C-alpha cells in the first residue's frame, strides 16, 4: 500500500488503538487486514482491555480455577469459553462478537419445588455438564423451577434472553402435554411464553386424542384446527452443540439505569398430571442473537 498524507496507516499507532477500542471485538479482528500498523494496534492491551468488562478482575477472583493469560486479547478469548465461578454454582463467559457478559445459573442455584426430596428429584453428576451435578426429575405433578440474577452483573444496554438448558429421557412422561409456561421479569418488563419441553411426545399424544375424538364424538374440522393451534402456539426447544437442549424462556432489555432482579421461571401446575424424565443443567442468560458472521483472526463462527 502506498503511503501519503491522506493514508490512515500513517497515523500514530496509539491513535489507531484508541479508535479501534471504540468499536467491537469483531471489528478489531477485521481491522488487522488493513495494514501492519493496524495489525499491531489491534492486538494491543489498550484495545482488548476496553473489550473486557470493567469488573473482570473481580470475576477472575471468583473463578474456581485460575485463569492464565499473557495478554488482554488472550484473556478475552479465554473468557469466551465458560469458566466456573462462585464455588462452581455459576458459569461466566463473554460473547465473542460484542464482549457482553453471559452467565449460566446451575441447577443448584435454582429454586426447584420438591428439589430436595429424593422421591421427587435426584442430584447426580453428568460428564457433559459444565457443573458438578444436575437435577433429574423422578416424579412430580407440580413442576415449578425458578431462579434470579441481579441485572447489575450483566452488560448494560443489552437485550438478553434466558434459556432453560435440559435433557428429556426417552421414557419421560407428562412433559409433552399440557404445555408449560415461562416468565422472565425485570422491573416492569414481563416476557411470558407458552412452551413445550417435548413436542414430539405432544404431537404423538395429540394424534391419539384426535383419533379418539373421531371414533367417539366424530370430531369436526374445527376441533382438529383448535388442537393443532394449541401445539403450534407453543415454543419448542432447540438442540445445542454440547448435546443438551435449550428452551428460550423470554427476553429483557438490561437498561443501565435499571438496577434490579431478573426473575426466571418455568411452571406447569394446572393439570396435576405426573411428570418424569427431565434433567436440568441450569438457566443460561446471554445476549439475544441477531445475525452470524466470522471473526477473521479466529476463524470462529459466532453470533452478533
Automatic annotation (TrEMBL):
InterPro entries: F-box-like_dom_sf, PP2-like. It comes from the Eukaryota. Coiled coil: none annotated. This is F-box protein PP2-B10-like isoform X1.
Amino acid at each position: 500500500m502506498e503511503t501519503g498524507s491522506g493514508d490512515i496507516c500513517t497515523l500514530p499507532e496509539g491513535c489507531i488503538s484508541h479508535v479501534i477500542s471504540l468499536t467491537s471485538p469483531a471489528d478489531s479482528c477485521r481491522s488487522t487486514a488493513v495494514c501492519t500498523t493496524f495489525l499491531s494496534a489491534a492486538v494491543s492491551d489498550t484495545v482488548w482491555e476496553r473489550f473486557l468488562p470493567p469488573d473482570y478482575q473481580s470475576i477472575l477472583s471468583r473463578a474456581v480455577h485460575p485463569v492464565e493469560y499473557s495478554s488482554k486479547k488472550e484473556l478475552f478469548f479465554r473468557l469466551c469459553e465458560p469458566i466456573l465461578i462462585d464455588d462452581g454454582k455459576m458459569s461466566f463467559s463473554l460473547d465473542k462478537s460484542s464482549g457482553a457478559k453471559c452467565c449460566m445459573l446451575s441447577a443448584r442455584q435454582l429454586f426447584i419445588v420438591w428439589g430436595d426430596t429424593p422421591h421427587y428429584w435426584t442430584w447426580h453428576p453428568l460428564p457433559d455438564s459444565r457443573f458438578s451435578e444436575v437435577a433429574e426429575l423422578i416424579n412430580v405433578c407440580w413442576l415449578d423451577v425458578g431462579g434470579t440474577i441481579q441485572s447489575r452483573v450483566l452488560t448494560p444496554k443489552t437485550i438478553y434472553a434466558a434459556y432453560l438448558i435440559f435433557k428429556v429421557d426417552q421414557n419421560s412422561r407428562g412433559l409433552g402435554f399440557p404445555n408449560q409456561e415461562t416468565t422472565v421479569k425485570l422491573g416492569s418488563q414481563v416476557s411470558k411464553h407458552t412452551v413445550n419441553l417435548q413436542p414430539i411426545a405432544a404431537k404423538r399424544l395429540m394424534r391419539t386424542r384426535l383419533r379418539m375424538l373421531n371414533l367417539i364424538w366424530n370430531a369436526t374440522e374445527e376441533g382438529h384446527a383448535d388442537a393443532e393451534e394449541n401445539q403450534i402456539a407453543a415454543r419448542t426447544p432447540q438442540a445445542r452443540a454440547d448435546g443438551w437442549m435449550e428452551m428460550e424462556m423470554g427476553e429483557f432489555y438490561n437498561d443501565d439505569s435499571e438496577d434490579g432482579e431478573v426473575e426466571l421461571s418455568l411452571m406447569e401446575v394446572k393439570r396435576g398430571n405426573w411428570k418424569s424424565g427431565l434433567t436440568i443443567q441450569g438457566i443460561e442468560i446471554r445476549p439475544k442473537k441477531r445475525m452470524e458472521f466470522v471473526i477473521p483472526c479466529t476463524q470462529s463462527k459466532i453470533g452478533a
